[in-house]
Amino acid sequence: MIYQKLGTSGLAISQIAYGNWITHGAQVDNETAYACVHAALDAGITTFDTADAYSETRAETVLGQALRGLRRESLELCTKVYHPTGTGHNDRGLSRKHIMEACHASLSRLQTDYVDVYYAHRFDSTVSLEETFLAFSDLVRQGKVLYVGISEWTADQITKGAALARELKVPLVASQPQYSMLWRVIETEVVHACEREGIGQVVWSPLAQGILSGKYAPDKPLPQGSRASTSAGAPFFERLAGQWLRSEVLQAVSKLSSIASEAGLTLPQLAIAWVLQNPQVSAAIIGASKPEQVQENVKAAGVRLDPEVMRQIDTTLDGLIERDPAKTG
Ligand code: NDP
């Protein structure tokens, strides 16, 4: 495993982080969840990503159980606030009330006194940035949150948030956007805004939810047990990755397999290594429904891809890549 600093902060994180969206508390049973977490730890992953809203809060509970008893200082635990955690009108968003209540609930489910990175899971246009950042500032002063991040904010929102964070001395250090060979919307604006502010990218769905593993074959039924085929995964898959389940994309992806094998990699490893070639990317968050996937995917850490390989990937995916920054969020 490679460990590197998150943006310009002093916090070192594992270049490959493990995330439990859709899987823990929903798609996989707890034994499998624990086995995946242990495969991650065995491979040197120290950075774990979750959110209060994942699997209606069950994901944090499962992760807390899986990590119980481990040396807290050896882990970076990251969670998020914004999406609904209940049906009450204050059970969502970035108000002071919800941030405070959500943070305390997350700490309890994760069985920890503090989180290393606490993300605003989306931008909340119904609450002033001042209110949100003052709440974050108080959590930081209380020692319950060490660093702050944002997820799927536009460049303009990030710039405004960073100015306020500076004023309030809130360590805003992380951006968590979707990023993969197929989804490159951060490249034109978000990455530059973050670079100016010293904010690192911790990217999600580097495999485009499994599309870039190559297992979704053109004109074939969905593989059994895959995210796209399970009741826990299908709605999210359909909304965020369904656009890629068409034969022109799947055919292009199958061509990437030979590029991967010529580079001595599997296709998932190539896809994860690809996001890590961007110097603004501090870590890639991988998801897994089986420990074997973790064991395979972590081998992307530290891989350098030749410019020629990068060029071949772009040629293969030409016309299929989403780059529009307006798609942020
Ligand atoms: P990936 O793109 O890495 O997709 C992971 C899924 O792909 C696995 O669960 C598995 O699904 C399949 N897969 C993984 N490895 C392999 C392999 N080697 N061979 C075949 N299939 C494989 O990431 P996720 O979409 O899971 O996102 C990762 C994390 O990012 C999340 O857990 C979460 O922490 C974070 N995230 C953050 C968001 C945000 O808004 N901030 C939004 C979404 C995610 P299966 O076997 O079931 O098909």
TrEMBL record:
Domain NADP-dependent oxidoreductase residues, every copy: 16-315
Domain of life of the source: Bacteria
- Please provide the record's keywords in A-Z order: NADP, Oxidoreductase
Instruction: Quote the cellular component terms of the Gene Ontology held in the record.
Output: cytosol
InterPro entries, alphabetized: K_chnl_volt-dep_bsu_KCNAB-rel (IPR005399), NAD(P)_OxRdtase_dom_sf (IPR036812), NADP_OxRdtase_dom (IPR023210)
Return the similarity comment.
Answer: Belongs to the shaker potassium channel beta subunit family.
For this entry, the protein name equals Aldo/keto reductase
Species, as recorded: Paenibacillus selenitireducens
